Amino acid sequence: MTNEKQLVGEKAAEFIQDGMTVGLGTGSTAYYFVLALAERIKNEGLKIVGVPTSIATAELAQEQGITIRSIDEVEQLDITVDGTDEFDDDLNGIKGGGGALLIEKIVANNSQEIIWIADHTKKVDQLGAFPLPVEVITEGSQQLLRYFEEKGYHPTLRLDSEGNPYVTDHKHYIIDLHLEKITHPYDLAEELIHLVGVVEHGLFLNRANKVIIAEDDAAQIITK
Ligand SMILES: O=C(CO)[C@H](O)[C@H](O)COP(=O)(O)O
């Protein structure tokens, strides 16, 4: 059986050119991109600077011999390759299933080009079946949970494998909103970002330029 995540990760690595500063996404699909990029660096001698979007990706990139810099150590990025939890026909998406949405969004906002890599399950007609992650500061998180409950957003505080609140790389909590259907993503994004205590949300609207998706055992490129 085809490993779709590997297929699209390897395809994305073909878009990287010598001298680029490259945003390195987070998650099980981005993992394969990082491995494929490291292979190209070893085999072809590409000179690349990687900007990781999480501690996990920074560790992986270092293990693989990729030179890394933080987002504050580069002026801007040529390209970012990242996974996504869902995307629709407009290439709007939900990200943050892996908890790295904050730096993923900062890196995306400073990239000239953004490619998402996705297995076939990630394409949806309407966003929302995947719970929307909202990164919040820890203090006041109970109040935000109550607010979201009252709004009918069906919030849950994300927990780690031991049943404790999941803590992000930047020591925040994540509240997942179980919305099922997001009919007005731009309005929702506007509401969430103005709530005091919310650091960032996982709606990535009008950001991706391309999605590489696995379909029928081949990598298909969807361009905006
Ligand atoms: O947004 C993310 C992490 O914060 C990931 O890109 C997203 O969760 C997809 O992950 P995977 O490739 O493991 O399905």
UniProtKB/TrEMBL annotation:
Gene3D superfamilies to which the protein is assigned, alphabetical: 3.30.70.260, 3.40.50.1360
Catalytic activity: aldehydo-D-ribose 5-phosphate = D-ribulose 5-phosphate
Enzyme class, spelled out: isomerase
Assigned GO CC terms: cytosol
Recorded GO MF terms: ribose-5-phosphate isomerase activity
Complex formation: Homodimer.
Name of the featured protein: Ribose-5-phosphate isomerase A
Organism, as annotated: Aerococcus suis
Gene from which the chain derives: rpiA
